[in-house]
Structures
1.
Amino acid sequence: MKKVLITGVAGFIGSNLLDFLIDNTDWHITGIDNLSTGSDSNISGQKDNKRFNFIKMDCMHLTSLKEYEIVFHLAALPRIQPSFELINEHVVANLLNGIHLIEVMIKENHFPRIVYSGSSAIYGTPEHIPTDENEPISCLSPYAFQKYEFEKYLELISTRYPLDYVTLRYFNPYGPRSFNPLNKFNAYSSVVGIFLNLKKNGENLLITGDGQQKRDFIHVCDVALANYLASIHPEKLNTSFNIGNGSTLSILDLAKMISDKYSFIPKREGEAEITFANTSKANKVLKWAPLYNISDFIKGEL
Ligand SMILES: NC(=O)c1ccc[n+]([C@@H]2O[C@H](COP(=O)([O-])OP(=O)(O)OC[C@H]3O[C@@H](n4cnc5c(N)ncnc54)[C@H](O)[C@@H]3O)[C@@H](O)[C@H]2O)c1
């Protein structure tokens, strides 16, 4: 039975990845989270599962990774706007945590596969639509830059040590638990979750700018599947993959799918005009393809 680690297990994507691995493998999963933005309630459904062990812990306090074959590294502070304000905290969360994991691997001379949750934010507003992995990097926020820096560290350190890693550049994940009212940064979480929460409370959906900005929305279970396939690929890949749906939807059209009560607020800096993934590389190498559709998800939530 494989032993694997998920960092950031109590967050939106981490908790969905945990559910996926419990349902689809016989692995033993240790999850760590410092609960800075994640929440115990996200993983309460698995707390009694004998194949899951939760440790409330900061990534920086991990001293050994020897028992793990795979490390899914998700722990982060993944919000664009707060990364402009609390810069040091975001550098620690989004870059230094990961570097600490690499240092533990080097110290122990044990190199489990790292499946790193990267971000399409590193493309900024891309020149090429749909966007493949060769798109020039153009970070519009400290968050995007920190996500890219860690990718680059993986690449550079692997020229000296036998790191085994895969970076998955998620586009715009949505799905269960994307909106966590207890998360101090919830105002900046996935727009799908925010809109559904406003609708539930009978409030106006607030659209930034004119709502013509477009996003490639990817269901969190498709993201979990990509993590799984990247983790079991028989070869050492040491590369990055786009993980998106391969389609794009404007924020205004998304709002109209959810409610007829919406209004407009000023545009925010640091956010892309469009995201639209070319996922041919993940389709070909990981044999991954998205299975979910956003309109079905929204219908199920209304
Ligand atoms: N949700 C998105 O829109 C999106 C898009 C692209 C990439 N990503 C990436 O996916 C990953 C997961 O994102 P998410 O949406 O689930 O975010 P999230 O905020 O819901 O989860 C992140 C988790 O990491 C934990 N954490 C933060 N710092 C930690 C530390 N030092 N030690 C231990 N735990 C720590 C938090 O408490 C939280 O539970 C992140 O790496 C993020 O950059 C997310």
2.
Amino acid sequence: MKQLWFAKKNTLEWREVPEPKLDGPGQAIVRPLAIARCDLDLPIIQGHTLFRPAFPIGHEMTAEIVELSEDIKHLQIGDACVVNFQIVCGSCPACSSHHSPACTTVPFGANYGLGREAAEFGGGLAELVKVPYAEAMLQRVPAGIDPLALASLSDNMTDAYRTVAPYLKAQPGANLLIVGGVAESIACYAILEAQALGAGQITYFDTDKARADFAAQLGATVEYAEKFPQRLGGNFDVTIDCSGSVDGFRMALRSARPYGKAITVSIFFDNSVPIPFIEMYTKGIDLTISRTHAREQTPEVLQLIADKKFDPARVTSRVVDFKDAAEAWVQPGRKLIVRGP
Ligand SMILES: [Zn+2]
Ligand SMILES: [Zn+2]
């Protein structure tokens, strides 16, 4: 079968690989229905991360089940599902205590289409994908929802959700600052999910005019400047850094109110990123840095979509056919979705 690989910097290539096979209990073989490009994929391909080639690419997807191990009770062949991008077993101590990204049954940090382990587990830009823990990793798409619009639910929509949902549950009507940038689609999903969850004012800041204009279209109160200031006035209850920029991250940290929350989805592959320590200490700013808990949060985001409170299709910028994936995947854009094979 065909599988798209990140072969070397700025280069993707289709490779012919063996079809995956069921070889034990609890498994599924799925055919991707739609594959979305994560905000991290372009930086990976451009060589800006520590993910080194070569491995299969694509980790956000919806898929149709084509084969199932006999012991599986809660899924059926033909079901359309959201596929968890993190490989998780669902039953180890980490999975049982709501920290599935630390699943101890698989190598730490194993994902589809992302990093060394993807050579074993595969990627979404393929004709077939094996799901080793089907009941833990597949979430059925409710009737009436287009699987194409859900492709990014595997990762970026849940990553956005973790930046807003816990804080809006604790403080309904909280005022948010979302700092846009490299994590472009995550920032947009965060705006829409925050609206769905009853945020107060949602302020969006960016140093890119086109991204700022789009955030305004989504309903955020937009501030734009060519450079990041030290801080934004606004006494924000929660600040969410999606900038991928140290200056953006530091501005977000400084813009939270005393005893406010700061969350970042930026990934700095440098352990020496400076934080405004004494300002955060005196103000008591609570900073959260984490990978997303995709398995734990997917059902909640899916419910928002099913209830028509959140329409992820508003963020999609381009849809292409499977045969055009290699060319399209390297073109910049907010949210690319590839139709399945
Ligand atoms: Zn991702
Ligand atoms: Zn586990």
